[in-house]
């Protein structure tokens, strides 16, 4: 590694050295090639004295190690460093508009003038991605500086449109697009930026309309990026026919698909639950020149989780485990859902292993309810109650009868009537969905334990929540009194059944 980073201006000076002048490197005076540079990179021949050099090595040095791409890379790195210093200053002043504008006037204008192609502004907006509102403030300041700074470029406007889209300010994005168009700055990148804004904000029809406008333009034509945006837009709305028609148009125009083309297709198929087409596209990628990247594998992991194909889901998960475990909590939840819906013999162990990867602040009520059902189905009473308590603590509530029946069934199989009674009381106060099955289950369990007085109190609870007695309620009472008495109450129940028009058991008539 070089001990000193060469400036681009120095490097360009070195490039002007001709082959003839290389023969007399000893005559090169300062400030040409620095002596340290010559000592480190100019080698002597085995049969030469100190003043002779090997010309092929020098030529190779400038043509290979210091190519144009290397100079461009250094130039970009220098730009990033300069912009980073300005970014730090504007972030410090983000809460004070006057100080912010002062910092931009003092250091921003001079920097932007050195890069009239707009690259400095674009780089600044890129580095301010975590601060979209601040980036938009700077862009608005930039729009006012046209009198004494370089005019805004297409790239700046495109970047501004993208920022407005992330802020969900579609009107501002359209305003920037029109402003650029009025300055005759129309370009494909400008259309692509606004199409992305429409897609991001769910305005697919406006995105398609803008695409048709682009095709009518004489100076710019749709690119593969344009078609990728269309595919993504159609995929979000499950317009699979439109998505596939766009793919056919790409092939007809002999455009080369990119990784984003396949990403949009697979995402669209997942949204539409078209699992076979999803897998087919994935196989095409694996067999073709464009291989799946991490984003494609993450999409496939989600697709296999939603489709319940656990073996393939686990296969993909092994490929991207490190990334998913640390950065993809939504995918971890998707895998948990897949296991909960399955009949996998070790699903509880796998679910609990995945649960440990989810941070505490990433609580989701629907996942909590899913776990309650999982533990209830597996008759893991303690784990079920822990999940129920967690739901109560987070003020989550259940709104479906199916989940409530799943819970009480677990209590019933464990013959845990006292725990069921406590749950019903808490569920009532928390606003959970109450149903007649909750109270009927308590009555049956109290009756089976000869706790008749507590069974009768359940009737008062039903009356308190305005739940009338049904035929099944009377049957539970009838069987309880028939088995444990007293006889007078059995007669009252039979009389009530007759009064309501319910069928009276034959053995009741014989016993009375």
Automatic annotation (TrEMBL):
Coiled coil region boundaries: 76-103
Molecular function terms from GO: mRNA binding
PROSITE patterns registered for this protein in UniProt: PPR (PS51375)
Keyword annotations: Coiled coil, Repeat
InterPro entries: PPR5-like, PPR_rpt, TPR-like_helical_dom_sf
Pfam families: PPR (PF01535), PPR_3 (PF13812)
Transmembrane parts of this sequence: none
PPR repeats, residue ranges: 223-257
Family matches, as PANTHER family: EXPRESSED PROTEIN, OS05G0407900 PROTEIN
Family designation: Belongs to the PPR family. P subfamily.
Protein name, entry field: Pentatricopeptide repeat-containing protein At2g30780
Organism per entry: Sesamum indicum (Oriental sesame)
Top-level taxonomy: Eukaryota, Viridiplantae, Streptophyta, Embryophyta, Tracheophyta
Gene from which the chain derives: LOC105165263
């Amino acid at each position: 590694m070089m001990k000193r980073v060469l400036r681009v201006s120095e490097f360009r000076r070195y490039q002007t050295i001709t082959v003839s002048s290389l023969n007399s490197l000893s005559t090169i005076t300062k400030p040409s090639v620095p002596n340290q540079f010559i000592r480190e990179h100019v080698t002597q021949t085995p049969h030469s004295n100190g003043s002779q050099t090997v010309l092929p090595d020098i030529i190779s040095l400038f043509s290979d190690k210091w190519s144009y791409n290397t100079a461009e890379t250094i130039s970009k790195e220098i730009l990033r460093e300069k912009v980073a210093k300005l970014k730090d200053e504007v972030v410090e002043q983000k809460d004070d508009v006057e100080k912010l504008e002062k910092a931009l006037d003092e250091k921003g204008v001079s920097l932007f003038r050195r890069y009239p192609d707009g690259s400095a502004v674009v780089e600044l907006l890129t580095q301010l991605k975590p601060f979209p509102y601040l980036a938009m403030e700077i862009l608005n300041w930039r729009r006012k500086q046209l009198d004494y700074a370089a005019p805004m470029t297409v790239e700046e406007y495109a970047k501004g449109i993208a920022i407005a889209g992330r802020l969900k300010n579609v009107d501002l994005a359209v305003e920037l697009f029109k402003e650029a168009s009025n300055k005759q700055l129309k370009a494909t990148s400008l259309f692509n930026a606004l199409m992305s804004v429409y897609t991001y904000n769910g305005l697919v029809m406006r995105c398609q309309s803008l695409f048709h406008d682009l095709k009518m333009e004489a100076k710019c034509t749709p690119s593969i990026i344009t078609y990728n945006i269309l595919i993504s837009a159609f995929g979000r709305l499950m317009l699979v026919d439109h998505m596939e028609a766009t793919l056919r148009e790409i092939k007809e125009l002999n455009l080369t698909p990119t990784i984003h083309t396949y990403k949009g297709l697979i995402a669209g198929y997942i949204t539409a639950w078209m699992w076979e087409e999803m897998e087919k596209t994935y196989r095409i990628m694996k067999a073709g020149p464009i291989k799946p990247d991490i984003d494609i594998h993450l999409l496939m992991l989600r697709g296999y989780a939603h489709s319940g194909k656990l073996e393939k889901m686990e296969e993909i998960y092994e490929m991207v485990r490190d990334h998913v475990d640390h950065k993809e909590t939504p995918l971890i939840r998707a895998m948990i859902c897949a296991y909960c819906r399955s009949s996998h013999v070790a699903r509880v162990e796998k679910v609990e292993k995945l649960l440990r990867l989810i941070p505490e602040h990433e609580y989701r009520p629907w996942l909590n309810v899913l776990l309650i059902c999982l533990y209830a189905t597996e008759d893991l009473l303690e784990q079920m109650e822990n999940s129920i308590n967690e739901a109560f603590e987070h003020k989550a509530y259940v709104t479906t009868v199916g989940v409530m029946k799943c819970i009480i069934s677990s209590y019933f199989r464990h013959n845990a009537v006292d725990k069921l009674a406590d749950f019903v009381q808490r569920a009532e106060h928390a606003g959970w969905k109450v149903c007649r099955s909750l109270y009927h289950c308590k009555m049956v369990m109290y009756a089976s334990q000869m706790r008749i007085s507590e069974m009768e109190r359940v009737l008062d609870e039903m009356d308190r929540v305005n739940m009338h007695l049904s035929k099944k309620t009377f049957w539970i009472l009838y069987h309880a009194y028939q088995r444990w008495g007293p006889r007078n109450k059995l007669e009252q129940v039979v009389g009530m059944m007759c009064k309501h028009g319910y069928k009276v058991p034959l053995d009741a008539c014989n016993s009375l």
